[in-house]
Amino acid sequence: MPQYSATELAICTASRMLEDGATVGVGTGAPCATAMLAQKRHAPHLLVAFEAGGLAPLLPSMPISVGDSRTFYRAQMATSMGDVMEACQRGMMDYAFLGGAQIDPFGNLNSTVIGNYNHPKVRFPGSGGGNDFASLCWRTMVMTQHDRRRFVERLDFLTTPGFLSGPGAREAAGLPGGGGPHKVITDLAVMGYDPETCRMRVESLHPGVTFDRVQENTGFELGKAPRVRETAPPEEEELRILREEVDPYRYIVGR
Q1: For the chain, N or C: smaller number of CB within 10 Å?
Q2: pTM for this structure?
């Protein structure tokens, strides 16, 4: 069995969730690596959109930001943020793929501040296109490290909506019905959401990881799916593409 890192496992696992012909709005970093891996391995017609205006590029290498010139490489359109967000608003984007500093039981995200907003301990870049993507795309996927500082009962600041306060809250806030949080992929597990309560629950444990370990690293009570599976490890071909074609300089996967 090939050796792999926790980050590589998370990226390979998430990439399998992006099917050929789907549309996905991504940020840079691990979400971008995930989309690139899917394009190069099993989903050549995956349409990737960047908030700065790159629509359906065939990325030659890992971009350093959503406005990097590589996000327009062989794109179907070099358009604008307004056009990309309009496509989301019109219901044309299947997935949003995001990260964040904090996530709560209902999939709400904080990428703005830790601590008091006016006198924060840490200030982050803010929403960018995250709020728009998660508000308007049909399903939101999140990739993050799994620890109690990130998985919190209550956010320090609500940057990006998940299910807000629970069932019906998105619709009551005026967001499109039928959308919202879909999956959370970490270095320990894959989480989804209970269809009745809209709270996060474990669906898959990575090899060698127990549910108790996941719960210990989570700041709120996690549920369990009816059948909790073991995450399939990366295949040799997935790792080769990820290491040699997607991220040869190991910006994301490490050295």
Answers
A1: C
A2: 0.94
